[in-house]
Write a structure and sequence with these properties.
Distance between the termini: 30 Å
Number of domains: 2
Shape: elongated
CATH class of the largest domain: Mainly Alpha
CATH superfamily of the largest domain: Winged helix-like DNA-binding domain superfamily/Winged helix DNA-binding domain
CATH architecture of the largest domain: Orthogonal Bundle
Structural class: mainly alpha
Helix content: 55-70%
Largest sheet: 2 strands, antiparallel
Order of helices and strands: HHHHEEHHH
Strand order of the largest sheet: 1-2
Oligomer: single chain
């Protein structure tokens, strides 16, 4: 799956992939129940086939059911998506990303989160010095 393909999902395709990441694996009927304002059963089945053809999902057969799951781990997909956002909206600046997150009114950082973030920054500094 190329990096360009990751950003070429329709709204419905993105909804389906998000559902599969949340559930891990799902049959067409389960995906259909989880979609807001759902299309028809046959539309969901067709979208899953398109996603499989594009390389986003795979299926396995369990009796009469086809169970669909993502082909890329959630961690890998989230990192790719985050890289895209950082590159596109923040010119590859980690500082700008953190500043934007901190400026959100709903962002509240607990003492434990602050300590973990401090440790990540320290580890990143050490890693950067070794290069």
């Amino acid at each position: 799956m190329s990096r360009n393909q990751l950003h070429q999902l329709s709204r419905r395709e993105r909804q389906i992939v998000d559902i599969l990441y949340r559930q891990g694996e799902a049959a067409v009927a389960e995906v259909l129940r989880a979609i807001p304002d759902p299309p028809s059963y046959s539309t969901v089945r067709a979208l899953l086939a398109v996603l499989e053809e594009k390389g986003y999902v795979r299926h396995r057969r369990q009796g009469r059911l086809y169970l669909y799951s993502p082909t890329v781990s959630r961690t890998q997909a989230s990192r790719t998506a985050l890289k895209h956002v950082v590159n596109t909206f923040f010119d590859d600046s980690v500082e700008d990303v953190v500043a934007a997150l901190m400026s959100l009114k709903s962002t509240r950082i607990s003492a434990e989160e602050y300590e973990r973030l401090s440790q990540l920054i320290k580890a990143g500094r050490k890693k950067g010095k070794k290069r």
